[in-house]
């Protein structure tokens, strides 16, 4: 009998730990690729807007904001897809689809993450806060767009690139043409990598009626991805020219271009596992571009 309360507390602790683990899975904290795909463009924008030395507070706010908003996006996405995910082999084990987390819990978690994002926004200037309204709208609209929009990846790209104009607003209190050019570049990039992601689920999506660019592009998918990769590289070079970036940045873009070519080769047979590998590899592309930006400003300062 003496061990009863201790045993109850131990069981309660285990249950809470398991529930916390399911919440972490719902936020995809166990799969950080999405965080990096959102983080890298945001850091591109911060470093360029800050002339190589962004304000430390802005850096901390945007890094935290990326993690919070990506987590919130995953939660609302899985809430919207909770019935669809159960019909797809790759996603049927997600917490909502598997019944490990209740829909009401997911909405409560989304609300908490939204409050955390609001708390971070207080630390930014009015223009950046105003632009954050667009980020919130895109985060909520995107998961539901797969029912009616043939290319929902465009909305995903708009959301994943929105940190760039926000970064310029936070650093310079303006959103110049360069910021919008970089944003468009990220939209193109997101269409590329999320088409690869959607190619892994194309048969299931066709069966259940979910739309994606993988379905829209059909048998021309590889050719269209190649064309978009060319547009992406050209866009990055134009952005570098607009921003006054030099040889180190161009070297980063060159490395990125080689990575893009390797991704296209990886998905040449359209095998689901290979498509997911190529999708994940895009985090390295983002890192290569950031490395080019960082090195360009570092050695510019040294000279």
Overview of this structure, please?
By secondary structure, the chain is mostly helical. It has a single domain, classed as UbiA prenyltransferase (Tetracycline Repressor, domain 2, Orthogonal Bundle). It is built from 14 helices and no strands.
What's the CATH H-level homologous superfamily?
UbiA prenyltransferase
Structural domains: how many:
1
How many angstroms separate the termini? 75 Å
Q: Assign an overall shape.
A: globular
Which class in CATH terms?
A: Mainly Alpha
**What structural category characterises the helix and strand content?**
mainly alpha
CATH third-level topology = Tetracycline Repressor, domain 2
Order of helices and strands: HHHHHHHHHHHHHH
Helix content: over 70%
Strand residue content: under 5%
- The averaged pLDDT comes out at 94
């Amino acid at each position: 009998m003496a061990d009863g309360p201790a045993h109850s507390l131990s069981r309660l602790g285990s249950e809470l730990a398991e529930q916390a683990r399911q919440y972490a899975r719902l936020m995809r904290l166990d799969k950080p690729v999405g965080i990096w795909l959102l983080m890298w463009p945001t850091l591109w924008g911060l470093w360029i807007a800050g002339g190589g030395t962004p304000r430390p507070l802005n850096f901390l706010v945007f890094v935290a904001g990326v993690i919070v908003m990506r987590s919130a996006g995953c939660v609302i996405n899985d809430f919207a897809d909770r019935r669809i995910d159960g019909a797809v082999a790759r996603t049927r084990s997600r917490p909502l689809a598997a019944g490990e987390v209740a829909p009401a819990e997911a909405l409560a978690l989304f609300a908490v993450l939204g409050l955390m994002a609001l708390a971070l926004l207080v630390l930014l200037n009015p223009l950046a806060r105003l632009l954050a309204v667009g980020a919130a709208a895109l985060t909520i609209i995107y998961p539901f767009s797969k029912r009616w929009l043939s290319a929902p990846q465009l909305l995903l790209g708009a959301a994943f690139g929105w940190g760039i104009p926000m970064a310029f607003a936070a650093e310079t209190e303006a959103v110049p043409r360069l910021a919008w050019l970089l944003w468009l570049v990220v939209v193109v990039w997101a269409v590329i990598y999320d088409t690869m992601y959607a190619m892994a689920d194309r048969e299931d999506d066709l069966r259940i009626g979910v739309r994606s660019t993988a379905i829209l592009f059909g048998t021309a998918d590889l050719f269209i991805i190649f064309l978009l990769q060319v547009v992406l590289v050209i866009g990055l070079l134009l952005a570098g020219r607009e921003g006054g970036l030099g040889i180190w940045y161009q070297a980063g873009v060159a490395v990125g271009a080689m990575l893009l070519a390797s991704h296209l080769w990886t998905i040449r047979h359209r095998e689901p596992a290979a498509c997911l590998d190529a999708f994940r590899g895009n985090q390295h592309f983002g890192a290569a571009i950031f490395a080019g930006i960082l090195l360009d400003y570092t050695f510019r300062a040294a000279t």
